[in-house]
Amino acid sequence: MDPLATRAPSGPAAGQPAPLLPQGWCALPPAAPLDMPVHPLEATPDLHGRGPVPTTEWRLIHLRRLLVIGGAVVMTGLAGYEMDLVFNAVQRSVAGMVMLVLFVMLFLWIALAFTSALAGFASMLAHGGLGLGIARSGPLPRLTTRTALLMPTYNEDPGRVMAGLRATIDSLAATRQERAFDVFILSDTTDPDVWVAEEAAYMALCRATGWGGRLFYRRRAVNTDRKAGNIGEWVRTYGAAYQQMITLDADSVMSGDVVVRLTAAMERNPGVALIQSLPVIVNGQTLFARMQQFAGRVYGPLIAHGIAWWHGSEGNYWGHNAVIRTRAFAEQAGLPHLPGRQPFGGAIMSHDFVEAALMRRGGWAIHMVPALAGSYEESPPSLTDIAIRDRRWCQGNLQHAKVVSARGLHWISRMHMLMGIGSYVTAPLWLVFLLVGIVVSLQNRFYKPEYFGDTKLLYPHWPHVDPVQAEYMFIGTMGVLLAPKILAYLLLLIDGPLRRGCGGAIAAAASIMVETVIGGLLAPIAMIIQTAGVISILLGRDSGWNAQRRDAGGLQIMQNVRLYMVHTILGIALAAAAWSVSLPLFLWMLPVTLGLVCAIPLAVLTGSAAVGQAFRRAHLLLIPEETAPPPVLHAAVSYMMQMAGQPVQDAVTALRARAGLLKVHEIMLPPPRRPGDPINPALLVGLLKLREAPDLATAMRELNRAEKSAVLGNAEGLQLLARLS
After folding, report:
1. Which sign does the torsion angle of CA 82, 419, 427, 604 carry?
2. What number of other Cβ atoms are within 10 A of residue 557's Cβ?
3. Which end of the chain is more exposed for a tag (fewer CB within 10 A), N or C?
4. 547 vs 561 pLDDT, higher one
5. DSSP β-bridge partners for residue 213
6. In the 3-class helix/strand/coil scheme, how is 663-707 assigned residue by residue?
7. Could you give the 3-state DSSP secondary structure of residue 215?
8. Per residue in 557-615, pLDDT tens?
9. Which residue in 526, 515, 518 sits closest to 485, CA to CA?
10. d(CA 395, CA 680)
C-alpha cells in the first residue's frame, strides 16, 4: 500500500491555507510526520514494472550503447597498440608497461567522451533531445496536479536567494498556472544573523509576490544529513500532498514555461520518476565564470544530448532543476549512512547520483531532456572557489565506491558512479603518467644502459622510445580531446540564434580559441588541486560543509600567492627536469609546466571581474543569455541588483528594531524540547550568560555564534534578550 496516499500530512501541504500573519506574511507550521520508507543499499529492489519500455526502444537503446561504449573500447584498443609501439617496440620494460597501462586507462576516459560527443552531434542534427511528449514551443499544457518548488539554502546571501526565486515565481505567474505550485524555502542556515535576514527577506518576498498562502519558510535547528536530510524531512512531512517536487539550488532560476512543460510531462508519464533539464550557466562576471558559462553554453548541449541519447531511461540526476515524482522518491530514495568514519563513511554527500540509481532500481525511469531551454544556474567566480566546491564533490564521488556494488542497481547506474569516481581519480593518474614519463626520460639521459645482458643475443638491449610514433600519438590524442569543441562549433554555425548570441561566427571561433588556450593552462593547476583532494580524502580528512561564495569579489594577490605557490614550484621543477633531458622534451612539456609556473597570475586574472568585463567588451566569450536575455533572467538580474549583496544586520538588533519581524520569528521557532530529546549545551550556556549579563552589549560579546543561534531559537532566550537594555 502506498504510504503517501494513505497518510496525508496536516498543515498547508494538505490543501489548507497557512494562517496569515500580520500584513499578509505566512509561515510554515509544524505538521504530522509522514514516514518515508528507507531502503538500505542491500535491499532487494522493488520492481513494479511501471511503464515498461517497448521492445523496439530497448533494442534501439542497446544499439546506441554498443556504438558509444563499444566505439570507445575499440578506439582505446587501437591507441593502446600504437602507444605500445612507442615504449615497447624493441623490448618490453617495467616503465614502459606502467606507461602503457596508465595511457590505456586515461585514453578510455577521453575516448568515451569523444564517442558520446559524436552521438550528441547526431542527436542535435536530428533535432532530438526531448521525448516524453515534450514540445519546445507552442501552447502550454494544462496541469492537473500540485507541485512543490523546494529551495534549500545554507548560509547564503538571503537577497540573492530570494531574487532568483522571485523571478521564477513571477515567470510561473505569467503562465497563469501558478495555482498548481507551492514554494518551500528550506533553510539549514547556522549563522544567526543570516537566519534572521532570511526571515526578513522571506517576508519581503511574500509581500512582493502576493503568494502568502503558497510560500513557506522553515529553518532546521539541527542540520541532520545536510541537504539530502533537509529534502528528506520535507518529503516525510509534506510530500503526500504533492505529486511532483522541483528542487532548486541557491543560484537556480527557471522559467515558468520550462517548469510547466516538465511538470506536464511527469503527469503524462506515470512510470517516470525524474526528468532532468539542462541548466545553462549565466551571470558570469569574472573571466573564470565567463569561460565556464561560454563552455557550458556552446559545448554543454553537445555533451548533454550525447549522454541522453545513450542513457535513455537510465539517466542521472544533477541535484537541482529537475522535476521528481514524490512517490518514487519517497519509496526508493531514502539514503542510509555508509559504514565507517568520514570521509568515506557517514551521510552520502553526492546524494543525487545515488537517489537516481535507487529510483531506477525500483523500476522508475530517469530521463534527461537537454533540448528544453529555460533552466539556469551560476558558476563559482574563481578557480579557488570551484576548487572548494570540487573538494566536497570529490569526497562525495569517492564515497560511491561503497555504493556501486549495492544489489539490484542497473548497470548504467553503476556506470554513472564509476564515471563520477573516475572524474577525480584520473587527475592523479595523469600526474603519475607525466612523472613516470619524465623519470624514464631522465634515466635514458643520465644512466648508462647495459647494452649486452647475460643472455647472448645478436642485438643489444637498446633503450628505445620512438619519437616519430610518440609525435603521432600526441597529435591523435589532442585530436580526440579537441574534437568535441570542433563539433560544437559546427553546430553553432548552423544554429542562427546561438551564432548571433555568441557574437557571430568569427567572434565565436575566437572565443573558442581563448577558452581552449586559457583552459589548457588551467588544466594542470586543476590536476594538482584534484590530486591533492584525492590524497587528503585517502588520508581521512573530511571536507565539511561550507557555504558557496557566489559574488565576483576576488581574492587578494597575497592570498593567491599562498594558495598557488606550491603549484609554481612544482612547475619550475618539472620544467627544469625536462630541460635537463632535452629541448624537445622541454617543449613537449611546456603546456603543463607553463600553466603551473603561471598559476598565481592565472588565478588572479581569471578571478578578476574587470578582466572578465574587458573580454565582454571585446565581444569574446559571449552567450545568447547575456546578449538577448530571456525575461526570467532579465528579472532575476534586476532583482539581484535590488536585493543581493546587502550587509547582513546583527540578528538581535534587527529583531529589536522590527516588531513584525520579531513576531514572525517567534511564530517560526522550532518546537520546544520534549522529554527524551537531546540537550543542547550551547543553549544552556547561552541562557546562563544572558541571565548573568548586566546589559545587552555585554551579552552579545559573551555569546559565541552557536550560543547566539541557540538562544534566538528559544522562547526563553528571546524573553531574556528583550529584558536587557
Report:
1. positive
2. 11
3. N
4. 561
5. none
6. HHHHHCCCCCCCCCCCCCHHHHHHHHHHHHCCCHHHHHHHCCHHH
7. strand
8. 888 889 899 999 999 999 998 888 778 778 888 889 999 999 999 999 999 999 999 99
9. 515
10. 29
Helix axes 411-446, 583-597, angle to 10 degrees: 130
Q: Does residue 245 come out as left (phi exceeding 0), alpha (psi in the -120 to 50 range) or beta?
A: beta
Residues 6+ apart with CB under 8 A from 592: 434, 524, 571, 574
Rounded to an integer, what is the distance from CA 526 to the centroid of its chain?
16
pLDDT tens digits, 43-69: 444 444 344 555 567 788 999 999 999
Mean pLDDT of the chain: 86
Q: b/e per residue, 612-628, with b = 16+ CB within 10 A?
A: beebbeebbbbbbbbee
CA-to-CA distance for 199 and 187, rounded, in angstroms?
10
Locate 439 and state its grid cell: 623519470
The residue with greater pLDDT, 415 or 40, is: 415
Reduce the DSSP state of residue 314 to 3 states and report it: strand
Identify the H or E element spanning 507: helix 505-538
Rounded distance between C-alpha atoms, residue 336 and residue 342, angstroms: 14
The residue assigned the cell 533537509 is: 230
β-strand partners of 375: 254
Cα angle 142, 146, 147 (rounded to 5 degrees) comes to 100
Cell of 584: 624537445
End-to-end CA distance of the chain: 58
Q: Is the pTM of this model over 0.70?
A: yes
Helices (H), 214-350: 226-238, 256-268, 287-298, 300-311, 326-332
Which among 674, 665, 663 has a CA at the least distance from the CA of 712? 665
DSSP state for residue 454 in the 8-state scheme: S
Q: Say if residues 12 and 237 touch (Cβ distance below 8 Å).
A: no
Q: Distance (Å, rounded) from C-alpha 23 to C-alpha 25? A: 6
Give the residue from 154, 176, 132, 88 showing the smallest Cα distance to 266: 132
Q: What is the DSSP letter of 556?
A: P
Return the closest-CA partner of residue 560 out of 338, 309, 288, 253: 288
Number of H-type helices and E-type strands within the chain: 29, 10
Separation of alpha carbons 416 and 29, rounded Å: 39
pLDDT band with cut points at 50, 70 and 90 for residue 459:
very low
